[in-house]
Write a structure and sequence with these properties.
- The structure is a single chain.
- This protein is an all-alpha fold.
- It has two domains: 52 residues, Arc Repressor Mutant, subunit A; 126 residues, Tetracycline Repressor, domain 2 (Orthogonal Bundle), CATH 1.10.357.
- Helix 1 packs across helix 2 and helix 5 packs across helix 9.
- The N and C termini lie far apart (62 Å).
Length: 202
């Protein structure tokens, strides 16, 4: 990348610029390899000025994760005006397309969530919690009454969608539409199956 010519920006604009550059770099390399010096050079600012906006390299990396997580959530928000299954399919389709288009970024985030960094894990868990809440909020419209087992099953479904999508990106043995069908069908199967299975065991 070529260094960006220094331009005068408001504090909010400069902070957003630094995060955008960090997000772009995250698409090319793991989070721990993002260089503060390189980001400052790209922005046309001093390293010291970057630390005016972020207290440390770790704080900057954490802000990048929050920025990219917010971007993913914004692109995958369900449309509540649709019928329940159409809403679910729309959200799943948006997720698959987003991860496909931002593969490097998303894989780096997943690696970060599996690292020993508690703050990184907490941020990714917060993102998963938002995704889960979006689902459970609309489950009654699918005829699924929410309880603790269903809520836990939804979290498991999210982990399934994440892993299956990443595995598909590495080895796309089925078409994109079949992957989306698999994800959509899995949610009621897991949620309703949880209650049915408990009933059988009882």
């Amino acid at each position: 990348m070529e260094a960006t010519k220094r331009t005068r920006m408001s504090p909010d604009e400069r902070r957003a610029q630094l995060l955008e550059l960090g997000a772009r770099m995250l698409a090319e390399r793991p989070l721990e390899q993002i260089s503060v010096e390189e980001i400052a050079d790209q922005a046309g600012v001093s390293r010291g000025l970057l630390f005016h906006y972020f207290s440390s390299k770790h704080d900057f990396h954490l802000a990048i994760v929050r920025y990219t997580s917010a971007d993913m959530l914004a692109h995958t928000e369900p449309d509540p005006t649709l019928e329940p299954m159409d809403m679910l399919r729309g959200a799943v389709t948006a997720y698959v397309d987003y991860v496909t288009e931002n593969r490097g970024t998303y894989v780096s985030m997943l690696r970060g969530s599996a690292s020993g960094d508690e703050a990184m894990r907490e941020e990714f868990e917060n993102t998963r919690a938002v995704m889960a809440e979006r689902i459970v909020t609309h489950l009654p419209r699918l005829g699924i009454e929410l309880d603790a087992r269903i809520a836990l099953a939804v979290r498991g479904w999210i982990a399934f969608v994440e892993e299956a999508t990443i595995s598909w990106l590495r080895d796309p043995r089925i078409p994109r539409d079949e992957l989306i069908d698999l994800h959509v069908a899995a949610l009621p199967a897991v949620a309703l199956g949880a209650s049915a299975a408990i009933g059988l065991l009882g």
